[in-house]
Amino acid sequence: MTFLESVSAAFFKLVAILMKAAPIGAFGAFAFTIGAYGIASVANLFALIATFYLTSAIFVVGVLGLVAIANGFNILKLIRYLKEELLLVLGTSSSEAALPSLISKMERAGAAKSVVGLVVPTGYSFNLDGTNIYMTMAALFIAQALNIDLSLQDQVLLLLVAMLSSKGRRGSPARVSSPWRPPCRWCLRCPWRAWP
To answer: Is 56 exposed, middle or buried (0-12, 13-18, 19+ CB in 10 A)?
Structure first.
């Protein structure tokens, strides 16, 4: 193993340890919000989160399930194989947290190291279906909160802008609060000062 590979492996292990601690911080922030402002302050947010997870599940089973069948493998077996990484992503709200172990698992599954080194990071940057779903839903949530009526044309435009905006976006939890701003700002014609 070269020096750079050793440093890279050590860095990935450090990032994996730090990302496993991230849910504790998220829980603390959520507990403070509920304690300070009451459970009613997050009721609509719970509805958004539940709708997002339901939509994501339908996408995984429906769309990705059909892609898996067309390519000759079972999506449920893949989900079982990657369950630790999926739980880590769910707990940290960041796909970046699972990158080191995902690369290791793909190599253990028989994929060539050079292929995994190219395909997985590229997929992280350009195949962000969940980010696209979230950006569209968050923008619609904001439109409802601001009482902005959107026509079907506005909604389709919002979807197209979200699809374009999600490309190249990183899956880090620090960006969770802001990915909907560009599509909302442009499609909903809202002034920046109206945003929290």
So the answer is: middle
d(CA 109, CA 94): 23
On whether the pTM is more than 0.70, the answer is no
Return the domain boundaries, the chain: 129-196
Residue that has been written with the tokens 């496993």 in this structure: 20
**pLDDT tens digit sequence for 20-38:** 777 888 888 889 989 998 8
Closest CA to 139 of 175, 89, 189: 189
User: In b/e form, how buried is each residue of 76-102, taking b as 16+ CB within 10 angstroms?
Assistant: eeeeeebeebbebbebbbbbebbbbbb
Q: Please provide the DSSP assignment of 29-50 as one string.
A: HHHHHHHHH-GGGGHHHHHHHH
